[in-house]
Amino acid sequence: YQVLRYEVVNNVLFVWLKRARYSSLDGYRTSAWITVIGKNGGTPSKRLIAGWRSPLGNTHRLSVSTSPGGSVPLEIYIALMNKTDGGTSETVELSLSGAPSGVTLSPSSALVVGQTLFYTDLQVSGSTAPGTYNFNVRLTYGSQVWDLPLQLTVA
């Protein structure tokens, strides 16, 4: 196992773990998941957790590139930990924080039941200047906010 990232939120330690597994069809693949290691005090109800999924497995910061007028598909693991109301779907909103002008997400909201792998496109307008930009994809569930760092190269 490899620890990809950890974070303490409200006295709860969340750890992203990675392991390789073998498939007879396509060789080794990586998988990643989030686990609660321990707690000191109460666990928050419906805690929002998110992470990137990339061809190299989950990563803390994702780097992507496209040309002006292009788009990049993004895959995001989204989980509502400690969800206790069964199969009711909840809406998690996505937005960009600190992104250059002309860069948008579509779609920008996800329906989540427990946990899901969400697909969205990062769209770059033709008027976006070439360069490398660092910003966040921001997920919002109620008053909870989760930022996923992203580096975009427009060339």
Helix/strand order, N-terminal first:
EEEEEEEEEEEE
**How far apart lie the N and C ends?**
36 Å
Mean pLDDT: 76
Would you identify the regions where 5 or more consecutive residues have pLDDT less than 50? 22-44
General description of the model:
This protein is mostly beta strands and 155 residues long. It has strands at 2-9, 12-23, 27-39, 47-53, 62-66, 71-81, 90-97, 103-106, 109-112, 115-124, 131-141, 144-154. β1 and β2 form a beta hairpin.
Which keywords apply here?
155 residues, mainly beta, four-stranded antiparallel β-sheet
Could you outline the blueprint of secondary structure elements for this entry?
Elements lengths: L1 E8 L2 E12 L3 E13 L7 E7 L8 E5 L4 E11 L8 E8 L5 E4 L2 E4 L2 E10 L6 E11 L2 E11 L1
Parallel strand pairs: 5-12
Antiparallel strand pairs: 1-2, 2-3, 4-6, 6-10, 7-9, 7-11, 8-10, 11-12
In short:
It contains no helices and twelve strands. The chain has strands at 2-9, 12-23, 27-39, 47-53, 62-66, 71-81, 90-97, 103-106, 109-112, 115-124, 131-141, 144-154.
